[in-house]
Amino acid sequence: MGYPSMSLASWAKSWLAGEASPDDLVDALHEWAPLHVVRASDPVVAGRVGIEWPDPEIDGITVLIKTIRAGAGGTAGGLRLILPAPGDVRGLPPGTGFASAALAAGEGVLLGTGGAAGTGIVPTPSGADVLEWSCFDTPIPLAVDDETLGDIEYRLRAAVRDAADVVASVHRTAIANRDFDVRGAIEDELAELHHHRLPESLSPRARRVLDSADQLAAILTVAKTASVSSPTSLSANTIQDETLRPLWDAIRLARMAAVNSGDR
User: Fold this and answer.
1) How far apart are CA 262 and CA 21, in angstroms?
2) What is the rounded CA–CA span in Å between residue 167 and residue 52?
């Protein structure tokens, strides 16, 4: 699980569905940082979430939980994970402070009903021990679910096949550079991703999708590292952003679909 917003969204959905406790959500968030600070973008939002303006709430995890319950209307369906990237801003309310912050962070959570006003939350690390959550007043876009989780799983498998050339390039780098342990590097990346637990309430299919996304993400991360450490060994600049971007897009979409799906 590569994003604090994923932990927040997946565990909050499980809690709101009655399948996890608030303590489970708190424990999942504490795996990211021991201290959680909540900030409001303006006085209106500060009043909504129950903090003083303009001061942040230093020990804000209780405020965060209350904000989630109120903003989501007490239901798992009122919460949505967003993982935007440059060139792919689907799911973001255009021209909003939340959209700008979420795009800069690469993640965020929307609370509310599609087509109505709601709350957006964006995490930002502040040192090794602090995670700041900024709350925004924002319209909630209507969800567009054109694909089922089964469709997403199929597409992710295709993306893994498309990564075959990337994997081959990484292995060529390993042969050229005996100090580069490809298998060990991928295992280390996976261990880091799996450090953050998933709720038991997730369906087997959602877990498969997230596991496949993590495996592909680990491969691509190691591939990028290999291209930096030994770029001349990668024929025709195989490991380039334009090559990897569609694969990273597939990972992001798979993670959003698995967390946001009602298939639990």
Assistant:
1) 19
2) 51
User: Which burial class, exposed, middle or buried, applies to 41 when counting CB atoms under 10 A from its CB (0-12, 13-18, 19+)?
Assistant: buried
Single pTM value for the model: 0.90
Going from the C-alpha of 203 to that of each of 83, 206, 220, 258, the distances in angstroms are 21, 5, 26, 9
Residue ranges covered by each domain of the chain: 4-139, 149-260
Report pLDDT for 175. 55
Q: Under CATH, what is the fold of the domain 4-139?
A: Nuclear Transport Factor 2; Chain: A, (3.10.450)
Residues 6+ apart with CB under 8 A from 247: 159, 162, 163, 166, 216, 220
Taking only the tens place, the pLDDT of each residue in 119-175 is 999 999 998 899 999 999 999 999 877 688 999 998 888 888 777 666 666 666 655
Written in H, E and C, the secondary structure of 87-155 is CECCCCCCCCHHHHHHHHHCCEEEECCCCCEEEEEEEEECCCCEEEEEEEEEECCCCCCCCCHHHHHHH
Separation between Cα atoms, residue 32 and residue 196, nearest integer Å: 8
d(CA 137, CA 120): 6
DSSP structure class, residue 57: B
pLDDT tens digits, one per residue of 194-240: 889 899 999 999 999 999 999 899 988 887 776 655 555 444 455 56
CA distance readout (Å), 45 to 58, 106, 110, 171, 234: 16, 22, 14, 51, 50
Report d(CA 255, CA 19) in Å as an integer: 20
Q: How many helices (H) and strands (E) does the chain have?
A: 10, 5
79 in Cβ contact with 125 (< 8 Å): no
